[in-house]
Design a protein that fits this description.
The protein is built from 12 helices and 18 strands. The protein is an alpha/beta fold and about 425 residues long. It binds aspartic acid (ASP) and magnesium ion (MG). Its EC number is 2.7.2.4.
Length: about 425
């Protein structure tokens, strides 16, 4: 038994879905396939949700664009046979939802709408496979992936979920399940989501509950590379990684897998394969338990959109643990993610994710106690397994704002 996960890029058009079908078909044993929303349709749904919530007149046009995008894929796959009934139903349901008045809970409304991406994509793929002669069972993952009600960032109820997954995915009369990534539901069956890009995590939840042989994540890259090839030259492919190394990389900002994916797989000792859907015959990268020593090249991870905030006490007092505690908790309350910290006697340097945060308001509050200096538009470069040559090169090439080294990891904050 295995789990395969296909992300948006792997089902972005009819040709891509056909390729997914070929990959699934060549797998002989029992299989659960977890699929994300098609292409960039989750981004599109996010704009739809904003328009719905603000009752903007763009609402209908965005809905039409979302529908059109899927209709083109459906036409490419089904031709004359037309749209599968369930997909038709889902479009109706979504359109109807858009006519109703939203509640006051934005995050709740977000989850009730964003899930249509995954529900529609899985129906299209499942029906296409059925029509092509590969009978399979479409599964609503919300019947077994149970969470709390933190909408948009729901926490999994592990015990209950594991039990339900085992009772639902029985393989009694099927060899293949097609189900959704990213979504779950509360005790009262309200839809929740696990956070953007959460489908990898879904695959790990299902895989670890069913104790599968492996979980494969199919991507448009050959596997895990030593850096993002779009941002750096000379990247090399990494054949194997430990779970720990993979967690470190993804936590530092490597986008190749969702950081939460590793823990459940590590705990059950289930290998995670990162493979190319363009060259499915290639082995890709395997993340598993490694007892022997492996040599890894320097691995570069870039986290963009960082802000460096330097605080010093207004009364010239030395930075204490209480200051750190106060500032960090304040930022957590404001949902700002701290990525690095460094302190001297007088200065507390905090590097944080500043994607779309309201910095002005935050600085206003902090400036009651502290003098503040800051720089935006910075990139945090993490180099795992750094060498002296690499560090020298970085220092020569880049304007470095802050540096931190540990045994295996160097972190440098540089101008973008
Ligand atoms: N479709 C969702 C997203 O784009 C979940 C995922 O792709 O993993 O965030
Ligand atoms: Mg996606």
């Amino acid at each position: 038994m295995k789990v395969f996960k296909f992300g948006g890029a792997s089902v972005k058009d009819a040709e891509a879905v056909e390729n997914v079908y070929q990959i699934i078909k060549s797998e002989r044993g029992k299989l659960v396939v977890v699929i994300s929303a098609m292409g960039k349709s989750t981004d599109l749904l996010e704009t739809l949700i904003k328009a719905y919530y603000n009752n903007s007149d763009k609402k209908q046009a965005i809905f039409e664009a979302f529908k059109e995008y899927h209709l083109e894929i459906i036409e490419g796959l089904f031709g004359e046979k037309g749209m599968p009934q369930e997909v038709y139903q889902l479009f109706m349901e979504l359109e109807h939802k858009l006519q109703t008045r939203p509640s006051y809970d934005y995050n709740f409304e977000y989850d009730q709408i964003i899930c249509f991406g995954e529900l529609i994509s899985t129906h299209i793929v499942s029906d296409y496979l059925n029509a092509s002669g590969y009978t399979n069972t479409w599964m609503d993952v919300r019947t077994c992936l149970k969470t709390d009600d933190t909408f948009r960032d729901a926490k999994v109820d592990w015990e209950w979920t594991e039990e339900l997954i085992k009772t639902e995915f029985t393989f009694a009369d099927t060899n293949l399940y097609i189900t959704q990534g990213f979504i779950g539901s509360t005790t009262t069956n309200l839809t929740t989501t696990l956070g953007r890009e959460g489908s990898d995590f879904t695959a790990a939840i299902i895989g670890s509950s069913l104790l599968v042989k492996s979980v494969s994540i199919w991507k448009d890259v050959p596997g895990i590379l030593s850096a993002d090839p779009k941002k750096m030259d000379g990247t090399v492919m990494i054949n194997e990684l430990s779970y720990k190394e993979a967690v470190e990389m993804t936590h530092s900002g490597a986008k190749v897998i969702h950081p939460k994916t590793m823990q459940p797989l590590h705990n059950q000792g289930i290998p995670l394969l990162v493979k190319s859907f363009v060259e499915p015959q290639n082995p890709g990268t395997v993340i598993h338990k490694i007892d022997h020593k492996i040599e890894l090249p320097p691995i570069f991870i870039l986290k963009e959109n960082q802000v460096l905030i330097t605080l010093s006490a207004k009364d010239f007092s030395i930075i204490s643990i209480n200051d750190i505690d106060r500032v960090v908790n304040f930022l957590i309350d404001k949902l700002i993610k701290v990525t690095l910290m460094q302190q001297s006697a007088i200065d507390l340097n905090i590097v944080a994710d500043a994607s779309d945060e309201n910095l002005e308001e935050i600085f206003d509050e902090l400036s009651e106690h502290y003098n503040i200096r800051y720089n935006t538009g910075l990139t945090l470069v993490t180099i795992r397994h750094y060498t002296e040559e690499v560090l020298d090169w970085m220092v020569k090439e880049k304007d470095i704002y802050l540096e931190q080294h540990s045994r295996l990891t160097a972190r440098m904050l540089v101008k973008e």
